[in-house]
Design brief:
CATH architecture of the largest domain: Orthogonal Bundle
Protein name: Endonuclease III
Low-confidence stretches: none
Binding site for [4Fe-4S] cluster: 194, 201, 204, 210
CATH class of the largest domain: Mainly Alpha
Number of strands: 2
Keywords: 4Fe-4S, DNA damage, DNA repair, DNA-binding, Endonuclease, Glycosidase, Hydrolase, Iron, Iron-sulfur, Lyase, Metal-binding, Nuclease
Order of helices and strands: HHHHHHHHHHHEE
GO molecular function: 4 iron, 4 sulfur cluster binding; class I DNA-(apurinic or apyrimidinic site) endonuclease activity; DNA binding; G/T mismatch-specific thymine-DNA glycosylase activity; metal ion binding
Number of domains: 2
Strand content: under 5%
EC number: 4.2.99.18
């Protein structure tokens, strides 16, 4: 069992130092070239892999270039064009609704405030944070996806369970200058090593400070269940 540092702040600092060294080039893995493309890609990525989203969006972004294009398309057509994305019928409705609101209320542009973004269909705080950070260079919070949720709990950085509560808790212990990269570092680590079902603790750079380290720990703090 790894031994976490004496305070959550010290634990965060150690985790950041090691993960920055382990993943020096980590960044968002969705492909996009405009603010609108990013918004669409992030909406589609909910409960779907970034790899699959990138595949679908390659053709989608050729066909739909403006908010008007999404607003004028039918939901059926959009659903066909994003077939293969999880919940494609629901997300087709989101895309059409987003297009309509962007045209009617924002001159076709992607807004740059949390409140305006979360007013869009299919856009919660996580999605809005991604768009603010990568489209507008505005960091208001920490994106909490499944990797961040799992690993921050495994490492004993938070005991919160819901993404909103986890974000609030993390914002109190993660240095603000690291909010954006904290997400990408944990995502990279979650994909490479600290996977949901079979984390490779033997090869983990954080094993000695991880209270969930599978070699000795009886419980996975991410789930609260025994290994």
């Amino acid at each position: 069992m790894g031994t976490p540092l004496d305070s959550r702040e010290a634990q965060v600092d150690e985790v950041l130092d090691r993960l920055y060294e382990e993943y020096p080039d980590t960044d968002i893995s969705l492909n996009f070239s405009t603010e609108l493309e990013l918004l669409v890609a992030v909406v589609l990525s909910a409960q779907c892999t970034d790899e699959r989203v990138n595949e679908v969006c390659e053709d989608l972004f050729e066909k739909y270039r403006t908010a008007e294009d999404y607003a004028e398309a039918s939901e059926e057509e959009l659903a066909d064009d994003i077939y293969g994305i999880t919940f494609h019928n629901n997300k087709a409705g989101y895309l059409k609704g987003i297009g309509e609101i962007l045209v009617e209320e924002h001159g076709g542009e992607v807004p740059d405030t949390m409140s305006e973004l979360t007013d869009l269909p299919g856009v919660g705080r996580k999605t809005a944070n991604v768009v603010l950070q990568h489209a507008h260079d505005v960091t208001e919070g920490i994106v909490v996806d499944t990797h961040v949720q799992r690993i921050s709990r495994r490492l004993g950085i938070t005991e919160e369970e819901r993404p909103g509560a986890i974000e609030t808790d993390l914002m109190g212990v993660v240095p603000e200058d690291d909010w954006r990269m904290f997400t990408h570092l944990l995502i990279s680590h979650g994909r490479a090593t600290c996977t949901a079902r079979n984390p490779d603790c033997d090869e983990c750079v954080l094993a000695d400070v991880c209270p969930s380290e599978r070699g000795d720990a009886a419980v996975d703090l991410a789930s609260g269940e025994a290994w």
